[in-house]
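Methods — Computational structure assignment.
A single polypeptide chain was analysed. Its primary sequence is given first, followed by the predicted tertiary structure written as structure tokens.
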Amino acid sequence: MEAKVTHFESNSFATLSPVVLGELPNYVYISEEYVFDDDANVIRHLLDDAVGSKGFRNNVLLRGDHVSFTYGETLERVNRIANVLVNSYDLVPGNRVLLRGGNSIGIALSWLAVVKAGGIAVATMPLLRAKELSEIIEKAKPTIAICDDALRDELDQAIFASGEAIEVIVYNRPNSAEDLGARAEKMSVDFTSPESSADDVAMLAFTSGTTGKPKAAMHTHRDLLCACAAWPAHVLKATSDDIVIGSPPLAFTFGLGGLLLFPMSVGASVYFPSKPYTPETMVQTIRSVGATITYTAPTFYRQMAAFAKDVPLQTLRKSVSAGEGLPDATRTLWREATSIEMIDGIGATEMFHIFISSPPEEVRRGAIGRVVPGYIAKVVDEEGNEVPRGTVGKLAVIGPTGCKYLDDPRQANYVKNGWNYPGDAFLQDEDGYFFYQARADDMIITAGYNVGGPEVEDALMKHPAVAECGVVGKPDEERGMIVKAFVVLKPSYANDTGMVKTLQDHVKAMLAPYKYPREIEFRAKLPRTETGKLQRFKLRAEA
């Protein structure tokens, strides 16, 4: 297709000022499939047009254990919720709305309504504690929060700690006039989105990185539309007949794309369970609902294989793995259990979704895949010069989506001369396949979750027994990596199994449970430089 040029204008993020954008690309060459009208709203495009010009009105979009909604029915409910936000809570374009809840039809409807109404969706993990939520609130400055009633306590603590004036709307509160669903029933099914620009911010996606301080990656309506036209169109190739299931939270961009936006782009449907999946229940759900596409992390696939090998998953035709490295052993185990060649991929919260991947028929052993059409990727040295094929270096990527942090000087580390640096070490072969080598920073990826080592260190240091500590990732066959802590105790504290459990419970009480150190090793001292800087690379080598 003919090459086009799209410009990223810094003033398009004015609603989120102050913004430190660092070096943004002056332009990105993209094909016509990535060009959208300047006033495009991603929800009008994916939902309103699906009901209208695309002819998907009667296709089922949202499925659950007890109820299902077609695209037409979903549009009516989204419009009702948008009317609640605008008419009852004075939501105006650019206001941020925090969303707190697990994967469900309710949270999906709320996310769509916020963005259609011109708000900026700030989805959060249901496992987050008050401390973590308060950091997000401090950064995002939401005016409204939509929260599952069962998760209200931690949010209330976070709002109190932040001192912000945030109006909370609850859902999943049966037989209550305060329930969002009950309020929405009284509203009109018609809603007209406010005037907007495709370069208005639609969402903030939080990532802790390696510093423990959350970074807010901004994604515009144009970003989300481009993402729908990229990896899913070129690699996944879903159709309107597909039924999609998966475990990634909608608060992760991997989950939001795979379990909501990408299916909507082709008129497919998504199934949300009433309880979080286990490997066994996900296999059972594939059979019971006739799922055709599944998303989860390699850890889950390894565990699912044992339940899938005895009874064929007759409807399943595609399996997508991301969130952590996919070992060849896991790919082989899943293929032997299901006859399905897994689709691997690497993406980033900052880029929204996958930018390197290959369809099943083009898989190469050990490789993640080739660059997704529309993006350009290369392996470079410390100066940004492309290295010879077969040489390990840093990954650099440019394309129709890119990193735009909210008010964060780390933007300049991620984007250099227009190229995005996700922080991964790769090599590329002569045929263009990319082979993952390692993280270039201190990020720990465990069972598909990103954990910043310094964040866990900070939690451990708040226990009175801890004098100093260092947290790194340790390779693990089951989870890819586990969080391991090296701890120096203060005098008079015993370094026994009881103390291990005490510290683990302490971290669980402060942070999301998946962040706690599964291994704790006590040391008399930690390796440090002459200036006192902790040498994590030595701890990683020992782990």
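Note: The two ends are 49 Å apart (CA to CA).
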